Amino acid sequence: MKVDPVPLAGLAALAAATPLVAVAVLAATGPLDGYLAHIARTRLGDYLLTSAIVSLTAAILSGLIGVTTAWLVARCEFAGRSTLQWALALPLAVPAYVAAYAWLDLSQAAGPVAAMLRDAGFDGVAAALPAIRGPFGAGLIFAVTLYPYIYLLAREAFSGQSADTYDAARTLGHGPVSAFLKAALPMARPAIAAGMALVVMESLADYGAVSHLGAPTLTVGIVRAWAGAGALADAARLAIVLAAIALLLFSLERAQRRRARSSAGSGRRKPPRRIRLAGWAAAGAMAVCLFPLLAGLVLPMARMVWLAFEAELARGLFAAFRHSAILASLSGLFAAALGLGTAYAVRNRSRLARISARVASLGYAAPGAVAAVGVIAVLSFIQTGLDSLWGGRFPVLLTGTVLALLFAYLSRFAAAAIGPCESALERVTPALDGAARTLGEGPLGVLRRVHWPLVSGGAITAGLIVFVEVLKELPATMILRPFNFDTLAVVAHNFAADERLGQAGAPSVLLVLTALVPMIYVARKIVKESAIEELG
Amino acid sequence: MIKRMLCLGVLSAVALSACGQSGEERVVNVYTARHYSSDDFVYANFTEATGIEVNVISAGGDLLIERVRADGDRSPADVIVTVDAARLYRAEQAGLFAPTDFSQLAGTLPANMMDPQGHWIAFAGRARVIAYSTERVDPSELSGYEDLADPRWEGRLCMRSSDNAYNQSLLASIIAHRGEDFAESWATGVANNLARPPSGGDTDQITAIAAGECDAALVNHYYYARLARSENPDDQAVATAVDLFFPGDSEFGTHVNVSGAGIAANAPHPAEAREFIAYMLSDDAQQAFAELTNEFPVTGFDGYDNALVRDYVSIRQDSINLGELGEHTETAQRIFDRSGWP
């Protein structure tokens, strides 16, 4: 019996590609009225420079944070490690725009910290306080909210690595840092690269945080072309540029992955032994792990809770919570299935599948608002087809249904699901399949008893990432949802857009808590599984 | 076979669709760019008064326009509401509004607040005015928008990004009154006077003035009014440190933008849509806008409990037809692009 996952990969690609195709059609057929030439003369350079600063700052800082913390919890032993190893994943639950609102509010001259300093008579210090804004501020916000992508994948990689290479490096006279850099890090490179690609992609496509912090990236330019100048076709053309950058990034990541695979060893795997830290080293490790948690989760949320207590409570929060939970769980499940299917199809060396997976990755690259316009165009096209097949008005209008929303989410986040699944599947070497078959397992038995234990972590991570992404997603949710269907993100956005940060506090906090509950569960489950693996 | 499959599809889509439209009850489907929680209160009162249920989708004006356009003659939208005159103009240009005779509703409405062809009608206003530090700025040195480009303001202004629709509409009105060349030198002059690169919303500019980062900013009046009428001592301290200047008698008067509505070209419930828009102009709704969101009612200010906003409303407003601003918005943005106002 042969399980064929290629159709799943095709489905993922179709879902992800069609909105972009619609955008491309828009770009190709729309009128040329000189806006592009105008923008190239005026602001395009700034957009590109800002995009570069934001995404590089985000990539470098999140890489440092993600890799360091992953190494510490995977290979060192210190007080608080077992809690930190799942808690470190949690800032992913905080939408970048919420962190941006909270941090700008906390750090600006009119904020509470500066006010406290002025009250205490330190006017000079208050004036010198750096406000978190502009391109570097935005990069910092993305680093502290998105580093878990890298952390999760790198931790998987580090704790799955055999200790032999690292030990060998140590025996050959390398210190712990050098052995880490020479032996452990290169082997974890595909995972780190996959995580970084997600971080860069997401910070490039973000609109809410960068526009609030005053860091006009290309995405701001795209939305401005469309919303301000009404040049939808030119906005689509700029979006194609962004998608091309994404394609480039993903192919770089691919190349990394291939090189890492060819250099990965095989054979007997010795479970890694953790280095026991004590005294200052242990305190330092704990501080390093606590910093991103404080910056990405605790401080911004504490500010939102504080503000929420000062404001009156919004109504309809429970309904919004229910809607958010339904949408996020459904999309998480679908995305995990699609991600796993695609990853398998790619592993089976199907050419079609490989192309599909790359295409599916593109959905992630378009800014949310542009992707939403693409989805609307596709739905309208399908609707016309349905209406003519039906011979009249098809009884359901697709826009404004939950199905439309699921389509939009899958198209946007398929890449977030495929990456972790592929990463996990790489641990299943073809030799493992062969061994299990030799020992008398059938194909399904191999899948269940060998693959599933190894890839379930990746699949769950994939579903979780999509769950959280969908909770945070705004433009597609706003424009495709059914009537009277508020989600937590929508309610939080509406208050924030009305500059009632206090009232935005309660829905934001509820959103983060909603994301935290399954995340804590899953993060702990992943950690427990790898602990059992190590014992066995 | 195809038909049966489609039926199955319909069933599952209906089952998955959370929007259960049932029965013969009267409904109106409102696509709105307004996102104020007080609107729920207005809708509830409308339902109580008329028996018409209100279904709402709220999103940015441009997304709403795209959705209505894509849904075409299948669009369930009855009423389209935007919070910016330029978006009303854009929706009209896209053919999304059915021309309607609003003359019965117009009443005391100023003539510039509705489309001459009846595509849309305004129901609440927001003035874009100068917020200034009561400590560092003498109100007598303020004369209007145009003065903010003067070099004596160098390093003293906080402004929101030029992405902001309200900044674009203000510049559009300057183009309409003074021409493109003047508008461009104005935008460049203001950009040169910025104390810091733009970030945050209008309230952030007001609090920045209070914190001493800058001396003046352009903001919508209701953000200041909210702080001034707040019971929170921090808000009150900000409101004391900052005041608003309305360029009433100078230049072209105070720039006022609007929330406005039109009936969708393919509205399934046009009668209900008319009733809804009529209600937005009713005394009840106008009172809610004046008292809950500190907006300008458009039909007068009799008996509403908001002394601050009452004073603001009485100041001379720009009388340009709001539709005309829409014609200049694209030019306004190109000028901003060239001016270096981020």
Automatic annotation (TrEMBL), chain A:
InterPro entries reported for this sequence: MetI-like, MetI-like_sf
Transmembrane segments: 51-74, 86-104, 124-152, 191-215, 235-252, 277-306, 326-347, 359-382, 394-410, 452-471, 504-523
Family recorded in the similarity comment: Belongs to the binding-protein-dependent transport system permease family.
Protein name stated in the entry: Iron ABC transporter permease
Family matches, as Pfam families: BPD_transp_1
UniProt topology in membrane: Multi-pass membrane protein
The ABC transmembrane type-1 domain, residue ranges: 48-251, 321-522
PANTHER family: FE(3+)-TRANSPORT SYSTEM PERMEASE PROTEIN FBPB 2, INNER MEMBRANE ABC TRANSPORTER PERMEASE PROTEIN YDCV
Gene3D superfamilies from the UniProt entry: MetI-like (1.10.3720.10)
Keywords: Cell inner membrane, Cell membrane, Membrane, Transmembrane, Transmembrane helix, Transport
Organism whose genome encodes this protein: Hyphobacterium marinum
SUPFAM superfamilies linked to this entry: MetI-like (SSF161098)
Localization annotation: Cell inner membrane; Cell membrane
PROSITE patterns: ABC_TM1
Automatic annotation (TrEMBL), chain B:
Protein name per Swiss-Prot or TrEMBL: Extracellular solute-binding protein
Domain of life where this protein originates: Bacteria
The family this protein is said to belong to: Belongs to the bacterial solute-binding protein 1 family.
SUPFAM superfamilies given in the database record: Periplasmic binding protein-like II
Translocase found in the keyword field: no
Any Pfam family hit: SBP_bac_6
Signal peptide interval: 1-20
UniProt keywords, alphabetically: Signal
